[in-house]
Amino acid sequence: MQPAVEFRNISKAFGPVQANVDVSFTIAKGSIHGVIGENGAGKSTLMSILYGYYRASGGHILIDGQQRDIRSSHEAIALGIGMVHQHFMLVENFTVLDNVMLGTEGGFRLGAKRAAVEARLREICQRYALEIDPLAVVSDLSVGAQQRVEILKQIYRSANILILDEPTAVLTAQETASLFEILRTFKAQGKTIILITHKLGEIMEITDQVTVMRGGRVAGATATAASSKEALAGMMVGRPIESELARAPFAPGAPVLEVRGLQLDDKDKVRRLAEIDLTIHAGEIVALAGVSGNGQSELLEILSGMRLPSSGTVALNGVALPFARRRDADGLPAQFRELGIGHVPEDRLRDGVIKDFSVMQNSVFGYQDKVANRWGLFDFKRIAQRCGALIKNFDVRPADPDMRIGLLSGGNQQKVVIGREVMAKPALLLVGQPTRGVDIGTIESIHKELLKLRDAGVAILLVSVELEEVRALADRIVVMSGGRITGGLKIEEFDTTRIGLLMGGMHKK
Amino acid sequence: APIAAPKLGIIYDAGGKFDKSFNQSAFEGAERFKKETGIKFIEAQASSDTQAEQVLRGLARKKLDLIVGVGFSQTQAIQKVAAEFPKVRFVLIDSIAKGGNVNSIMFREEEGSYLVGVAAAMASKSKKIGFIGGMDIPLIRAFSCGYVQGAKSVHPKIETFQNMVGTTPAAWNDPAKGGQLARSQFERGVDVVFAVAGGSGMGTLQTAKEKGKLGIGVDSNQNYLHPGTMLTSMVKQVGNAVYDSFSQVKAGTWQPGVAYRGLKEGGVDWVVDKDNRALVSPAMEKAVNAAKAAIISGKTKVVDYRVAGKCPV
Amino acid sequence: MKTTELPRWASAFVLPVLNLLSALLVAALVIHLLGEDPLESLKILVDSAIINPEGLSYTLFYASTFIFTGLSVSIAMKAGLFNIGSEGQMYLGGLGLTIALLTLDSRLPALLLIPIAMVSSAAFGALWAFLPGYLQARRGSHVVVTTIMFNFIAASLMNFIIVKYLIPAGEQNPASRVFSSAAEMPRLNAWLPALGDTPLNISFLIAIAALAVYGVMVGRSAWGYKLRATGLNHNAAHYAGVSISRMIIVVMLISGALAGLAAVNSVMGSTHYLSLNFPAGAGFVGIAIALMGRQHPVGIFLSAVLFGALIQGGFDLSLEKPNIPQETFIFIQGLIILFCGAMENLYAPAVLKTLNLRKG
Amino acid sequence: MDDIQLSSIVVSTIRNAPVLMFAAMAGLFAERSGVVDIGLEGKILASAFASAAVAFVTQNPWYGVAAGMAVSAALALLQGFVSITQKGNQLVGGIAINIAMSGLTFVLAQFFFQQGGRTPDLGEARLFDIVLPGTAALEGVPFLGWFYGHVIGGHSILVYLAFLLVPIVHWTLYHSRFGLRLRACGENPHAADAAGVSVEATRYIAMLVAGVLCSFSGAYLAIVQSGFFLRDMSAGAGYLALTALVFGNWRPIYTVLGCIMFGFFGAVQIQIEGVDLPLVGRIPGSLIQMVPYVVTVIVLAGFMAKSVAPKALGRPFVKSR
Ligand SMILES: Nc1ncnc2c1ncn2[C@@H]1O[C@H](COP(=O)(O)OP(=O)(O)OP(=O)(O)O)[C@@H](O)[C@H]1O
Ligand SMILES: Nc1ncnc2c1ncn2[C@@H]1O[C@H](COP(=O)(O)OP(=O)(O)OP(=O)(O)O)[C@@H](O)[C@H]1O
Ligand SMILES: [Mg+2]
Ligand SMILES: [Mg+2]
C-alpha cells in the first residue's frame, strides 16, 4: 500500500547544530507510528519540517506518494496534515470556538458561521467524549482540557495525518487513556498518526511501528510487536537502562521540614490549600502525588518562598521560616535558599532559567550573591569552574558553557537546573516534575542524582504526576486532592488503585 | 566714526525668520537696509540657549561690527559674549543685557496693546473681548495687561477672557489649539480676540474669520491675512529697530545703553490700512488716536505688567 | 563548513558602518534635492564636528549630556523598563541644582558647591522617576505611559515655577538669575587650550566615569545580573530571589538620577542659569542612544558622540549653506536611528554570503 | 462659575477628540497585531504635511486627504518592513520615524513654500463644517437648536468619520475573520502560524490599516482644525493616543472613551483658565494644563491598575525556541 508519509534524506541544521541528518523512513497509511529518541535527537524538528514550520536544508517529503514542497503550515493543513505541538498552540484569551475557527473561518464575516461551528463542535465533543465547552476561554481550562482542544481542532479540520509531539507529557493516566481511545478511533477511520513520546510503555501500548532517532539520524526502526521496552531503550540510548535503581536502606534522620496547619486563599478568596500537615525527615524522599492542579504547585511555591501562605507555620530544622508579617513574597526565595532550601521548579522555562542567558550564567541563577566578592562583583573564574563541574557531573550536552540555554533541549536544560540545585548542597530539596519531557536516559541519570542526594541525608519533597517516577523514587507517598492531603502511604504499600482513589478525593476512614 | 561697509549680523530666535511676526519683522528691517545700502548681513538662528551662546561667539569671532540678537532668549548669552568681545557691538531686542557694548531695545508692548484694547472694546457688540497668548510668560502678560487696561478705559464693565495656548515652546506652534481656544471664547460670547501666540495665533485669526468674529494681529501687520475680519494689528516695529541699529553703525552714531520704544518713539502702533478700513469707524479711529496722544503726552500711564509682576485690572 | 552566523568583528563593526553609510546615502539624496553638494556638505560637517578641535570640543560637550540621558534610558531598559521620562527627569534635575545654587552659590566655594548641586540635581531627577517606578512596581501601571505623562507634567510644573518664582524682577527671559562663577563646572580648555573657547567641562570626564561604573555594575556585578534577569523574565527573577518591586523602584531612581545629572552639563557647564525647556529633547535623544548603543557602555559612548557631532556639524553646516536648515539634521538623526537601531541586520545576509563566497 | 459653559465644553470635546481617535484606532490595529506603534506621532505629522501641501497646491482638500493617506500608509509599511521583515526593534523603528518626520516635514515645507516650515493658508481648500438642513430653523429652539446645530451637526465630515469608525473598528476586531487573525497574531503568533495564518501578511495588513487611519488624524489637524501645516503641529497627539490605547486596555470602545476624556479635559481647561473657582480661586494656566495628565496617572494607578497588553506586543515573530 502507498505510505502516507515518506521522508527522503531530510537534513536540517541550526547554525552549527545538525538537528536532522539524512533522515529517511516511511509511515504507513492508517497506522500509528511511534517516533522516539533522546532529548535533542531531532524528533520535533523533523515533524516541524513535515508541518511546514521549518524548511529542510536537504531531502524531500512525499505525501501519499507525491513529492510535496511544504513551505508553510497553511500548505501542510491543505494537505490534510495536522499537528499537536509539544507546547500548545492556542491563543489563551480566545474561546475554544475562536481557536478552532482561527485559520478556517470560512468567510470574512464570523457572525453566522460562529453558531454553525459551535454546533459542530458540540457534536464532535459528544461523539468523542471530549468534554469541552466551546465557549470556554482557553486560559480557564486545565492542561488536559487544553490538550483536548488541540485534538478537537484537528478533528474539526479532519486532518488525515496527525502528528502528536509528546501529547502525554502533561496528562494524567486517565487523560492519557482517553486520548489513546480517540487515537484508536482515528486509526479505525483510516487516519495516520505519528506519535512522539518518551514513555516506552505508551509506545508498546498503542503504536504499530517505531522509528528510533539518535543524534539527528535514524538509529533503528521496527514493528512494535517485534520489540520490547528494553530493546527500544537500548536502541535509543545506546546502552541498557537499569529498571530498578540502587538505593541505600531507608534510614530517616531528624525531621527537616515541618508544616503545620498551612492554608492558602487566593485573590478571589478561594481556598487553594487547607490544613496541610507534613513532615519530611533527613534522608527521605516524600512524593506528593495527585492530579495536577490540586494544590501541589501552590505548596511548592510556598515552601520555596515564592508565595506567602494565608496561615499556618513551616519550620526548617526546628526554626520557623521567615514569612510572618510580610506583605508580599518579594525577595523571599533568596532568604529561603540561604537557609538551605533548594528548588527545582515545575516549569523550568517560566521560573527556572533565563532563556537568553548562557548555560554558565544560568548555572548560578538564584545563587548569584554567593559567587560575588564583597564588592558585589562576580568572580568569573570561580563561576566557570563551577559550571564546568556541573556540565561534567550532569552530562549536559552540548558541553558548551557559553551557549544560550534556550537553545538546549528541554532535558539538558533540566539537567542544568537540577545540577545547580544539587551542587548548592541544600538541606531540603523541593523538586517539581523533574523529568517532564525528558528522555529515559536522562530520567535515569536525574533519578540517580536524587537518590544519591537522599542517601547523603537530604530531605526531598518530590511533586510528580508520574506514578512510575513516584514509585521509583519515593520512600513515602502523600496524596493531595482539592488542596487537602487525602492520605499517605509507605512505598511498600504502593497500590495504584488506592492512590487513584485518594487522588479522586476519597478518604479512607 | 562712520564705517563705510560695516560687517553686520543678525541672530533670530527659535521662531525663525519666517515666523510671520517678530523675527520676520526683524528680517524685513535688515533686508530694507540691505536694499538701500547694498550692505549684506550674516544670518543665523539659535534654537536653544546653549546654542545662542555658540552662535553669538561664532559670529563675534568673525570680527563683525554689529550683531543683533532678536528675542529675549538671547539675553544671558549676549551678556556673556559681549563681555568676551568688547570690540564688537551688540543689540538685544526685547530684553536688557548689561555691558558697555550692548544696546538693549525694549518695546512698550503695553502701550500698543492699550490702543488695540480701546479698539476692541469699541468694536465689541457683546462687550466681551478675548485674548489668546502663546506661552505663559511675563512678556505675553504685558500684552494682555495693556489690552485690558485699554478696553476698560472705554467700558469699565467689559468682560475679558484670557487663555494661554501652553507652557512649552510648542505653544507657539499649535494653531489647532489656538483655533480651539478662540472657538471656545466665541461660544462664551466673545466677539473680538487679540492673538499674541506666534504660529498658534494663525489658528485663532483663522477661526475668527470662519465664525465672523474680529481678530487682532500682532508684531507684523497681519491685517492682510483675513481682510474683513481683521480689526487691526498691534505692530511692534522690530524691523525699524534693526534698520536703525544698522544705520547708526554705518553713520557712526551707535550708542550702547537701554532704549525704550513706545508709541512716542514709533516702536509700537496700531494699523489702519485698506484691509481693515471698513471695520474702523470714525469714532473708533478718533478714540484710539486720542488715547495714543494721551499716552504720548504722558497724560495716560499704562502699567507694565513686568515692573511689579502684576496687572492692576 | 559554511558559516551561518556572522563573526563578532563583522556584526560589531561591518554592519554598523554599512548601516551608517546607508543612512548617510539617504541624507545625501535629500541634500542633493535641496540643491546642495552632498560631498561638500559632508566635508563641512566632518570638519566642523570632528577635525576642528574646537568643533570636536563642542561635539563632546553635547555628547556629555547625551551620555547621561543615554545611560538613564539604558539602565531602565536593562531592567525591562522603557523610561521615556528622561526628558522630564532632566528638567527636574535642573530645578534641583538651581535650588541648591540659588541658596548657596554666594556662600560656598566651588569645591563644595558643585558636588552639592550635582547631588541635588540627581535627587530631583530620581524623585521625578520615583512615582512612575513606584506605580509600576506596586500598581502595575505601565511605566511607558506614566513617564510620558510625567514629561507633560514636568513641562507645566517647571513653567509655573520658573515664571512664578525664578525670574528676577524686571527681567524678560523666563529664566533664573545667572549663578555665581563658583557654580561653573571647570572647563577643560583650562588644561587643553587647543579645545578653544567651548563649554566642554569636567562633566565629560564624569560622564566617562559613569559609563565605566555602569559597565561594571550591569555586566560584572551580582546586582547587575539580577537587574538583567528582572528585565528578561519576571517570574524567573522572583524565583532567583530578586525583590522585583524593589528592583524596579531602585532602577527607576537610578535612571532618574542619571537623567537629573544630565542637567549639570547643560546648566552648570554652559548657560549658568535655568531656562525654560533647557533639555531641548536631550532626554529623547537618550532613548535613541540607548537603543543604538545596545545599552552597552562603548555603544552608548559612540552613539552619544555621533549625535553630538550631528548637532555641532549640522549647526555649522546650516550657517554656511542656508539651503540646508538645521532641521535637516533632525531628519538625519532619525535616519541613523532607523538604519543602525531598527534595521541593524539589514545587510547581515549579504555580508554572510560574501564571507562564505570568499571561503569558497 | 457661570463663565463655565457646559454646552461649549461638549462641542469642544467633540472637536478635540478626532485627532486622538483616528490615531488611537490606528494604534489599535497595529498593536493588536503585535507591532508596537510608537510611530503614530511621525505618521500624523507626515500626513498633516502631505495633506496641507497637496490641498494647497491643488486647491482641493480631497486630494490632500488622499496624499496624507498615501504618505502615512507608506510610512506604516516602512515600519512594517522594519518590525516584521527585518524583525528589528519596533520601538526604535517608531521613534526613528517620529524624529525623522519632525525634521523632514520642516525641511520640505521650507523648501517648497519658504515660509519657515509652514505651508500657506489653505483658504478655500479646507474641509468645512457641515451644516445640517434645518439648522437655521431650529436655531432659536432652546437646547434642541444647540444640540442639532452644534452637537449633531456643524462638524467637518472627518469628525463624523471618526465616530462612525468606532463601531466599524469594533466589528472588524471582534466579528470578522481579519479581526480574529489580527488578535491571534498579537496574542500568540506561533498559534496563529500553526493554524495556517500568515503572521507576516496579517501584520502587514494591520500596519496598512493603521497607516490609513492615522492619516486622517494628520489631515484633520491640517485641513480641518488649522487650515495649514506648521512644524511639529502634532504636539504630542501620537503619544497621547498611545496612552489612550493603554488606558482603554487595547479595546476599541474604552480606547475611544480615553480619547474623548483627553478631549474633554482639553475643553475644560480652556474654560477654567482665568476663572475664579470656589475654594481654590484662580488657577494658573500652567497648572491647569497638568490636569489631564495627572488624572491619567491617577486613573491608571487607581482602578485600572492592570492593563493587559497583547501578549506578543513588541516581539518580532521568529520561528525558534
Ligand atoms: N530553533 C533552533 N535553533 C537552534 N537549535 C535548535 C533549534 N531547534 C532545535 N534546535 C536543536 O536541534 C536539535 C534537535 O532538537 P529537537 O527539538 O528536534 O529535538 P527533540 O528530539 O524534539 O528533543 P526533545 O525530546 O527534547 O523534544 C537540538 O540539539 C536542539 O538544540
Ligand atoms: N466566541 C464568540 N462568539 C460570538 N461573539 C463573540 C465571541 N467572542 C466575542 N464575541 C463578541 O465580540 C464582542 C467583544 O467581546 P468582548 O466584550 O470580550 O470585547 P471587549 O474586550 O469588551 O471589547 P470592547 O468593549 O472594546 O468592545 C462582543 O460583542 C461579543 O459578543
Ligand atoms: Mg521535541
Ligand atoms: Mg466589552
Share of residues in strands of chain A: 25-35%
Return the CATH architecture of the largest domain in chain A. Answer: 3-Layer(aba) Sandwich
**Biggest sheet descriptor of chain A:** 6 strands, mixed
**Largest interface summary:** C-D, 47 and 49 residues
How many structural domains can be distinguished in the coordinates of chain A? 2
In oligomeric terms, what are we looking at?
heterotetramer
What topology, given as strand order, has the largest sheet of chain B?
Answer: 2-1-3-4-5-11
Helix count from the secondary structure assignment of chain B: 10
CATH superfamily of the largest domain in chain A: P-loop containing nucleotide triphosphate hydrolases
Q: Report the β-strand fraction of chain B as a percent range.
A: 15-25%
Counting DSSP E segments of at least 2 residues, the number of strands of chain A comes to 20
Spatial ordering of strands, largest sheet of chain A: 6-7-8-3-9-10
Radius of gyration of chain B: 19 Å
Amino- and carboxy-terminal Cα gap of chain A: 59 Å
Q: Considering DSSP H and I runs of 4 or more, what fraction of the residues of chain A is helical?
A: 25-40%
Low-confidence stretches of chain B: none
Could you tell me the CATH topology label of the largest domain in chain A: Rossmann fold
> What's the β-strand tally of chain B?
12
Gap between N and C termini of chain B:
48 Å
Shape of chain B: globular
Task: Tag the structure with descriptive keywords.
heterotetramer; B: 313 residues; alpha/beta; 10 helices; 12 strands; 22% strand; D: 321 residues; two-stranded antiparallel ribbon; 2 strands; 68% helix; binds adenosine-5'-triphosphate; membrane (chain D); transmembrane transporter activity (chain D)
Summed up, what is this model?
The complex is a heterotetramer of chains A (509), B (313), C (360) and D (321). With 360 residues, chain C is mostly helical.
Would you give an account of this structure?
The complex is a heterotetramer of chains A (509), B (313), C (360) and D (321). With 509 residues, chain A is of the alpha/beta class. In chain A, the strands form four sheets. A six-stranded mixed sheet of chain A has the order 6-7-8-3-9-10, with helices on both faces. A six-stranded mixed sheet of chain A has the order 16-17-18-13-19-20, with helices on both faces. Chain A has a four-stranded antiparallel sheet with strand order 2-1-4-5, covered by helices on one side. In chain B, helix 1 runs parallel beside helix 8 and helix 6 packs across helix 7. The model of chain B has no long low-confidence stretch (mean pLDDT 90). By secondary structure, chain B is of the alpha/beta class. Chain B contains ten helices and twelve strands. In chain B, the strands form two sheets. In chain B, strands 2-1-3-4-5-11 form a six-stranded parallel sheet, with helices on both faces. Chain C has 360 residues and is mainly alpha-helical. Chain C contains 14 helices and no strands. With 321 residues, chain D is mostly helical. Chain D is built from 14 helices and two strands, in the order ααααααααααααββαα. Chain D has a two-stranded antiparallel sheet with strand order 1-2. In chain D, a hairpin with a 3-residue loop joins strand 1 and strand 2. At the C-D interface, helix 5, helix 6, helix 11 and helix 13 of C face helix 4, helix 11 and helix 14 of D. The complex binds adenosine-5'-triphosphate (2 copies) and magnesium ion (MG) (2 copies). One magnesium ion binds next to helix 1 of chain A.
